[in-house]
Amino acid sequence: MRRCTFIIILLAALFTSCSVTRHIPQDEEVLSRVHIEVNGQRTGNNGTLRMAVAQSAYHRTFGFLPMSAWIWHNDSVRAWHRFRAKLGTKPPVYDEALSIRTDNAMRRALMNQGYLDAEVSHTTTSRKRKVEVTYHVTTGRPHRVHKISYMVEDPLLEPIIKADAAVNAQVHLKERLDRSQLEAERTRLTSLMRNQGFYDFNKEDISFVADTMARDKRVDLTMLVSGIHNRYTVRNVSFVPDFNLATGQRSGNPNYLRVSVLAENCYIRPGDLYSEEAVRKTYSSFSRLHILKYVNIRLEPADQPNELDCTIYLSPQNPHSLQFELDGTNTSGDLGFAALLTYQHRNLFRGSEAYSATLKGGYESLSGNVSGLVNDNYTEYSFENQIDFPRFLFPFMSAERRRMFTANTAVKAGYSYQSRPEYTRIITNVGFSYKWSNTSRTLYHTLDAVDLSYVYLPERSEAFLQIIQKAGPISYSSYTSHLILASAYNLYAGNSGRSLMNATQNVSRDLWSLRFSPEIAGNMLYGISKMADFEQSNDQYQIFNLPFEQYARFDVDWSYSKYLTDRSRLAFHLAGGVAVPYGNSQVMPFEKRYYSGGANSVRGWSVRTLGPGLYKSENSSIDYFNQCGDVRLDASIELRSRLFWKFEFAAFVDAGNVWTLDDYEAQSGGAIGPDFYREIAASWGLGLRLVTDLVVLRFDLGIKAHDPSKGTGSDSWVLTDPLSSHNRTFHFAVGYPF
Questions:
Q1: Which one of 119, 172, 352, 513 has the fewest CB atoms closer than 10 angstroms to its CB?
Q2: Is residue 436 predicted with pLDDT exceeding 60?
Q3: Segment holding 238, helix H or strand E
């Protein structure tokens, strides 16, 4: 407690000694805050009106800490001060001319939203060389669309435009006269025309005339479509598959792609009307091919009227690549090394199939007493193969059907040999999977049709056997030979951010994602065993003298990031899962069970040190096997705010735990029950992130708040000594936790 008091006093002294105006000339004032009042009501800072502000106040981390302004220094002589100037941000010196410019910009923004009679003014208050500006906005009643008419110069276009507008128009009666909606309508109609053969149609051919002279702020809107336009068809489609970017000439190797591959990825067909959407799809489809470095599509008028010739230029890259990595290790004086060799072929069967082969090997010597152990060193080597086909490999699926999806098929096989002092393990795996998305890229699917894993342990030391037998059936079954034949499906939906602007409301740039992941294993093998009346060993059917696992598992994961300002956001995360063994399995395989704690879970605990339920750790190697479960729950809320330079500060609260479905003796208190909510662990903490264009480096300090291993009474709330080594955990990770 004394330590916390000292830190609080130290931080308070540090903050009070800092001043935003310290390095600003005495005759100048800094802009401290900017407020916007719309019709007498103060609004948030994320609307389109906020975007019209010409001069922003200095940023406050979490809304009250002007860290970036504190760090900045105006001295360019000393190296330390120059460094501070680069890290920090100079506090903005208030400029009245910029406030006047903001008045005008807000007025224009409101007019664009239909508030043609809007009025904007500003007032300022000054205290201790800090200025607060308040913009007063009176919107008035908006002008609304009363009538829509069309004047189309080209008689060929008129019926198309009117028929489409009756169903798909973005501008409607009684809505505000919104300029953004008018622009959206221009863009939509331009795409419509260019997708129906009108190659020379442009957005500039569409304009609007608004008659605002009527009473009651009613607007008569007229759409003008000018020009006479020809409808074009595609005459020829030709390929230059060996185009050299450097020379602009052909390289002399045109047959590296099969003709069928060129045809399948091209959506532009001779005899079809010109379509801008077909051009876009063709670009997208060819850009997915691993062998291609550059794609360019040229459309030129042919020597016949109303016809186009299409030429598609493709530039290949080197199909071969080789990568080698070598690492050295030193674990308590035991020296070792690891090597990784990866070969890739980007065009294995002349269809841009990507083949990769990875050979990995590692060795580490073992000193000390090695009596009773299987091996006196750590040895591991593995070989993995994978082929990615940039299309669906599915029988009876037509080429036209395949073209409806952006798809990938993967076939993989691997072998791993692990020789450890405690045991020797061999793992063989084979997989066949599909990945695809719809053309709008809003839904992503992954289907692991076949995922076969064969785990074989030919040797185990007596000491290791005693440990896993003491740990219970979960750990023991995990270190026995077994077979898993599973199938899994993953559905991901999400967005990459949107910007929906309204003059008096907020700009929404919210990010969200939702993932569903069901998985089943062993059903087919169990059915075969039952029908063939195979004999059981230890109440389990076996295939090739190996017991196989049978289970069902379902996971769901949701995250949402709400933008508060342009430099801060509030992120939410909720995830859960349940795994049920049945039939041929009494417990879930260890590698398929859930664990809690760690940099992406409840951050008051390190990875695999929380749960299940009320389980109390024994601080031994057994905990690694026992601190896992069949049910998982995770929930987090995190406030992220820009600090200075590329640094971001975060404050978070996490909650969650794992539970078992059955009451196992080795996992006392781990079974889920009606009072499971009282066993949910909670932690809070602070984080520092370095955000660059390439990577996010994350440093988090998680502090326990509710520890279910101490029971469900008052002792489980561990808030009195948050900085104790037993109650805090540091995490370093790459990327955001969610």
A1: 172
A2: yes
A3: strand 233-240
Give the domains, in start order, of the chain with CATH numbers: 20-57+92-138 (3.10.20.310), 144-225 (3.10.20.310), 233-316 (3.10.20.310), 461-738 (2.40.160)
Average pLDDT (330-344) is 77
Residues 64-101 as b/e (b if ≥16 CB within 10 A, e otherwise) read ebbbbbbbbbeeeeeeeeeebbebbbebbebeeebbee
Encode burial over 16-55: b for 16+ CB neighbours within 10 A, e otherwise: eeeebbebbeeeebbbbebbbebeeeebebbbbbbebbeb
Least confident of 34-38, 201-205, 232-236: 34-38
* CA dist., res. 736 & res. 560, Å (int): 13
* pLDDT number for residue 381: 92
CA 65 to chain CA centroid, Å, is 29
- The pLDDT value recorded for residue 199 is 95
DSSP result, 66-98:
-HHHHH-----SSHHHHHHHHHS-PPPBP-HHH
HSE-CB at 682 with a 13 A cutoff on CA atoms is: 13
- Whole-angstrom distance, CA of residue 99 vs CA of residue 111: 18
Q: 98-137: per-residue pLDDT in tens?
A: 999 999 999 999 999 999 999 999 999 988 888 899 999 9
Q: Which two tokens stand for residue 515?
A: 């993932």
Distance CA 698, CA 598 (A): 13
698 secondary structure, DSSP code = E
Q: Which helix (H) or strand (E) holds 408?
A: strand 406-419
More confident residue, 17 or 294: 294
| AA identity, residue 139 | T
Amino acid identity for residue 301 in this structure: P
The arithmetic mean of pLDDT across residues 707-717, rounded, is 86
pLDDT exceeds 50 at position 612: yes
Task: Give 383's Cβ-side CA count (13 Å radius).
Answer: 1
Task: Write out 506-523 in H/E/C secondary structure.
Answer: CCECCEEEEEEEEEEECH
What confidence score (pLDDT) does residue 367 get?
60
DSSP state letter for 112: H
**Max avg pLDDT among 291-300, 507-516, 625-634:** 291-300
Q: 305: which 2 tokens?
A: 């009227």
Name the residue type at position 407.
A
Whole-structure pTM value: 0.80
- CA-CA distances (angstroms) from residue 540 to 270, 278, 486, 590, 614? 62, 56, 17, 17, 31
Q: Tokens representing 204?
A: 């500039």
- CA distances to 200, 290, 319, 565 from 243, rounded to whole Å, are 27, 16, 15, 47
In this structure, what is the dihedral angle of CA atoms 658, 662, 668, 674, given to the nearest 10 degrees?
A: 70
CA-nearest of 313, 317, 319, 291 to 243 is 313
Asked whether the predicted pLDDT for residue 432 surpasses 80, the reply is yes
Q: Are 682 and 706 in contact (CB under 8 A)?
A: yes
Backbone angles phi, psi at 76, to 5 degrees: -105, 5
Residue type (1 letter), 421: P
Strand duo 218-225 + 144-152: pairing: parallel
d(CA 544, CA 456): 12
Name the nearest CA neighbour of 457 among 484, 483, 479.
479
